[in-house]
UniProtKB/TrEMBL annotation:
CDD domains: MPP_YkuE_C. SUPFAM superfamilies: Metallo-dependent phosphatases. Residues 172-334 form the Calcineurin-like phosphoesterase domain. It holds the Pfam family Metallophos. This is Metallophosphoesterase. Signal peptide: none annotated.
């Protein structure tokens, strides 16, 4: 299975780089030497991506950033070069058709063997112009994306109405953060900034809805340690995300609990007359630790409002069957790099913000970190302050 997956990755990466070589090397070079240099660079860059994916996990944690930074930056730049060059195929075709018609209308020299639509110099100028345009646009997107990804998350105030909310809880504020993704490129300083920002709003409750880490407790325990300083008037809570199941979930459950953040594992607690529930992520099903909505939600008083913490928005389909009033989720990163959000929308019912699934309100935070490329373009990180109000 792994061999098949690797073969598919290599095939896709190879195909993309062949297209980039055609547009950025073949269409822009006029000498054999330049084309050879460009071809070698394309092959090397194609190998960088699978090498990064392999080495960023195989190397000791202290060395992972050395390969992660260049590899993931090239992955982001490759993505935007592919998108911009694909979009530029439309004006490329229009210009080529115009040039062909103009050449066909021009007088033909009977002593020339060139076809009327063949003009190497014009094709070279066109190729270089479009390659330069794609390069500038792609580099700008990546540069802005790095700035947003590495900067402080936005604080978003999100008012939400719950019909069953007790009058005494009107204005109750939940600080929601997800997808912190501690790992090779985000460490202790990232956690400290998030804790500082959440503590600064003096929330009633803190909810961390999964994907805290990309690595083991041995590697990332010190980076997660500042979570012990989180302040919520009624506590801080956590549910597992899919990445916890890639990183030794049981160790992380124990570690997070030891930091004073309660892990809700298919269970619920009472908070001033509101049921706060949490379910495990769908990825836990493969190791016998999946979500159990019945365990978390059955037998409760239907007159009480229930807020569910669940990492993936798609879990709202099950939540709705159990009468959940509001689900708080992450996972999507808001798409992380536009237009990737369009693909995310094919897999999740809500990509970012407030929506509804089968009658249950669902709020999806874009998350405070990133996965893979240290780039967030068109989907800046956020920490959301959900403010509950009665209907």
């Amino acid at each position: 299975m792994i061999a098949i997956l690797l073969a598919v990755v290599l095939l896709v990466v190879g195909g993309i780089h062949f297209y980039l070589w055609k547009r950025l090397v073949k269409d822009t070079t006029s000498t054999r030497r330049a084309r050879i240099v460009g071809s070698v660079a394309a092959v090397v860059l194609a190998l960088v991506i699978p090498a990064t994916l392999a080495l960023s996990r195989a190397l000791p944690h202290s060395q992972q950033a050395l390969v992660a930074w260049p590899g993931y930056l090239w992955l982001a730049l490759m993505f935007y070069l592919l998108v911009t060059l694909a979009l530029l195929e439309i004006p490329r075709l229009a210009i080529r058709l115009w040039q062909r018609r103009r050449a066909a209308a021009a007088p033909v020299d009977p002593d020339s063997s060139d076809k009327p639509d063949f003009d190497p110099s014009r094709r070279l100028v066109l190729g270089r112009s479009l390659a330069a345009t794609a390069g500038v646009l792609s580099a700008s997107a990546v540069g802005i994306g790095v700035y947003q990804a590495m900067g402080a998350p936005n604080l978003k105030r999100v008012p939400i109405r719950l019909a069953k909310l007790p009058a005494s809880m009107n204005g109750f504020r939940i600080a929601v953060v997800s997808d912190i993704h501690l790992g090779p490129l985000l460490g202790r300083a990232h956690t400290e900034r998030i804790v500082r920002m959440i503590n600064g709003v003096d929330a009633d409750l803190v909810a961390i809805v999964g994907d805290l880490v990309d690595g083991s407790v041995a590697e990332l325990g010190p980076a997660a340690e500042p979570l012990q300083d989180l302040r919520g008037k009624h506590g801080a809570f956590f549910v597992t995300g899919n990445h916890e199941y890639f990183s030794g979930f049981q160790e992380w459950v124990d570690e997070v609990n030891s930091l004073g953040v309660r892990v809700l594992r298919n269970e619920r607690v009472d908070v001033l007359g509101l049921d706060l529930a949490g379910v495990n992520d769908l990825s836990g099903e493969g190791v016998g630790d999946g979500p159990d909505f019945a365990k978390a939600l059955d037998g409760r008083d239907a007159n009480r409002p229930v807020v569910l913490l669940a990492h993936q928005p798609i879990q709202a389909h099950d939540a709705a069957k159990h009468g959940v009033d509001l689900q708080l989720s992450g996972h999507t990163h808001g798409g992380q790099m536009v237009p990737f959000n369009l693909l995310v929308g094919l897999q999740q019912p809500i990509v970012a913000g407030l929506g509804a699934v089968d009658g249950t309100q669902v709020y999806v935070t874009r998350g405070a970190g990133f996965w893979g490329p240290p780039v967030r373009f068109g989907a800046p990180p956020d920490i959301s302050i959900v403010e509950l109000h009665g209907a």
